Structure formats: structure tokens, C-alpha cells
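Q: I'm building a small set of examples for a reading group on sequence design. Run inverse folding on the following structure and report the sequence directly after it, with nothing in between.
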């Protein structure tokens, strides 16, 4: 919908240019609906709209010709007693080029108005058509921008609703889950001796299933929040300290060894997101390691536009038939970790989403039995 929208500088510039070229005191971009004509752009007129009953434009859009011209409205029976002719703004000469939609429907005119009789040459009429066509292109372009902005507004609103729902759902679901986990642990500790082996196994299954569901809820909530990294402040990341902190967070020297290989001392980036990204990759290497100690090499370099990372481990690698799927939400490599748990299919989705939000990308290089290398970049 174009009627009643704000003025557009590009359209106003064309209107003023046409007024200067044709030396007309009034130049208008006039759009017509069932009751009125409304001026999207205007030169030499104070009114924003007039009744359709009086509008020259209403006559123009009913013509088959692309241009509707009245040399002297005082001598035309259709307009001689029109208040716009006999009074202000004294429309004597009128030339309107039809503005048509992509479907060929007339929407209004780009019109020239003078207070004295005039005639246009064929060259001037051609120029009037050209300017009208450019105005129609601009109207369509602005309309598409408004439509895109409205879609983005709706999408933002939906995302906010989804994030709010995720937070509420996570809280509401986690509370009874924690109760179930706590109860199963309590029963196991106090009454295991009174249960037969099958009962103990069932209780253990309840606890593990509940823990897995809790992890799934946490990861889904985490995934839903990675929509606008620009809301998170940048900071200087000390690479050596950050790597050591992450290693201590997920294991100890008996389970994991992370070696940083980089000429860079620090980088300026969204530290919280980078650490979340690395934490996911390091945790995966540890969970799926088939060695006593998960050995990880972290390579960090840079080019003119991006920081470049490689996380390389000594694990079992990932079969090529799974490599196209592992970054998709809820897709896993159909293997269990060293603790017998199956992945949620969310961790690597989070990694992919973070890298894309930070202006980079990620890919995997791996052969079964040869370890895995995750190559990713983030924009400077």
C-alpha cells in the first residue's frame, strides 16, 4: 500500500527536476483511490489530497492513452466549471502520464499543471513518460522495502515470542525433571539393596533418560538465544589463558590435553561466543575420544578479514557418510560417546550458527580412524 506513506527523497527529487525542466508551477505524483486523490510528491501545492470528484487524475486513469493532456481546461466542457479551474489552484493546463502497476492497473498520474494554456511537443511528452516510468520504478522499490521491513518486524516479533516460549518451557520442564532425577538418585541410594537387579537397571535408565532430556532442553534454549551476537560486547581474548581455562573447565590433565599453536597472542572478538564455540568442539573431542587422553591441537591464524581456526583431535574421526549431516539440528553421527550416551544433535548446530552469525563458516575434514579437524572462521 502506497497511499499515506511518508515522502521519499528520491521521488521528490524527480518531481522537482521535472518542475524545473518543464517550468511548471505545480508538479505532482498523484495516486487515486475510490474517494480521493492523494499526492505522494508535490511541488507548488500545499494540499495533501483532494476529492476524486474534482480530480483531473481520475479522468486520466480512465483513458487508454499513456498521457492525458488538457491544453486549456477553461474551454473543455468536462472541466470548465471545475472549482480547481475557476478557483485555486487555477488548473488551466494539465498533462498527466499514467502510473501503472506491474499488472497494468492505473494507480494515478505524474502530472504537470500550469495556470496558463500550454502545449507539449512530442519530445516533451516522451520525456514526461520516461520520468513517470522512473517514478513507478521507485514506488515499486519503496513498496518492496516497506514489505521487507514489515516481514522483518514480524519475524523479529516471532523470534522474540519463540525465545520467551523457550525460556518458559525450559524452566517449566526442568523443574519436574530435576525432581525425577533427584528422586531416582534417592531411591537408588536408600533402597538399592531392597531392589532386584532389574529394578536397579530401570532406575538407572530413568535417571539417564531424565539427564539426557535436561541436556536437550538446555541445548535448545542455548540454540534459541544465538540470534543477535551484536548484543554481546566485544573484548580482547588472551588466547593462551582462554584455552587453558576451557581445558580446566571440561576435564583435567589425565583426560584431556589442549595445545595452542598460534603466533597471535590475543584477538578482539565476541569472547563469550568464541568460548562457547570452542567449548562445544573441545567437549565433543573429549566425549567421543577412544584414547585414554583426548589430545587436541588448536591452530589460530588470521588473514585480512577473518580469524582462522582449526580444532584437530586424535579421536576416532567421523565417517564421511555422516559429515554432511552433523551440523544440522538434531542430526547425529549415530554413535554413542565414551559414557554410552547418544548426542543430542544440537552442539554442532550451535557451533555452525555461531560461526555464521560472526560472519564466518565451518567445515569438517576427517576420515574414520584418523581423528577430526574442524576448520572455522570468524570475521574481524
Amino acid at each position: 500500500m502506497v497511499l499515506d506513506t511518508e515522502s521519499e527523497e528520491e521521488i521528490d527529487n524527480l518531481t522537482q527536476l521535472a518542475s524545473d525542466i518543464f517550468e511548471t508551477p505545480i508538479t505532482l505524483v498523484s495516486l487515486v483511490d475510490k474517494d480521493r486523490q492523494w499526492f505522494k510528491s508535490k511541488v507548488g501545492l500545499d494540499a495533501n489530497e483532494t476529492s476524486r470528484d474534482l480530480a483531473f487524475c481520475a479522468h486520466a486513469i480512465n483513458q487508454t492513452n499513456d498521457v492525458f493532456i488538457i491544453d486549456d481546461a477553461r474551454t473543455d466542457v468536462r472541466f470548465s466549471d471545475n472549482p480547481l479551474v475557476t478557483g485555486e489552484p487555477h488548473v488551466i493546463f494539465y498533462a498527466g502520464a499514467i502510473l501503472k502497476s506491474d499488472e497494468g492497473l492505473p494507480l494515478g498520474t505524474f502530472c504537470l499543471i500550469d495556470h496558463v494554456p500550454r502545449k507539449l511537443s512530442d519530445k516533451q511528452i516522451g520525456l514526461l513518460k520516461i520520468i513517470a516510468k522512473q517514478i513507478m520504478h521507485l514506488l515499486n522499490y519503496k513498496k518492496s522495502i516497506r514489505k521487507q521491513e514489515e516481514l522483518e518486524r514480524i519475524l523479529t516479533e516471532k523470534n522474540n515470542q519463540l525465545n520467551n516460549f523457550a525460556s518458559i518451557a525450559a524452566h517449566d520442564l526442568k523443574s519436574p525433571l530435576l525432581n525425577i532425577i533427584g528422586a531416582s538418585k534417592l531411591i537408588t541410594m536408600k533402597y538399592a539393596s531392597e531392589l532386584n537387579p532389574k529394578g536397579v537397571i530401570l532406575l538407572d535408565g530413568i535417571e539417564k533418560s531424565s539427564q539426557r532430556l535436561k541436556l536437550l532442553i538446555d541445548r535448545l534454549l542455548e540454540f534459541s538465544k544465538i540470534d543477535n551476537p551484536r548484543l554481546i560486547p566485544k573484548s580482547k581474548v588472551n588466547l593462551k589463558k582462554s584455552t587453558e581455562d576451557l581445558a580446566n573447565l571440561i576435564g583435567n590433565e589425565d583426560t584431556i590435553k589442549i595445545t595452542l599453536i598460534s603466533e597471535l597472542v590475543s584477538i578482539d572478538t565476541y569472547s563469550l561466543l568464541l568460548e562457547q564455540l570452542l567449548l562445544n568442539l573441545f567437549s565433543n573431542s573429549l566425549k567421543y575420544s577412544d584414547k585414554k587422553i583426548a589430545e587436541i591441537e588448536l591452530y589460530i591464524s588470521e588473514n585480512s578479514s577473518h580469524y582462522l581456526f582449526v580444532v584437530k583431535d586424535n579421536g576416532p574421526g567421523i565417517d564421511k557418510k555422516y559429515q554432511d549431516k552433523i551440523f544440522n539440528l538434531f542430526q547425529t553421527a549415530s554413535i554413542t560417546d565414551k559414557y554410552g550416551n547418544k548426542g543430542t544433535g544440537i552442539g554442532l548446530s550451535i557451533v555452525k550458527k555461531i560461526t555464521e552469525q560472526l560472519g564466518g563458516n565451518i567445515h569438517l575434514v576427517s576420515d574414520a580412524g584418523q581423528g577430526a579437524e574442524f576448520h572455522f572462521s570468524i570475521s574481524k
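The chain has three domains: 9-149, 154-224, 229-379.
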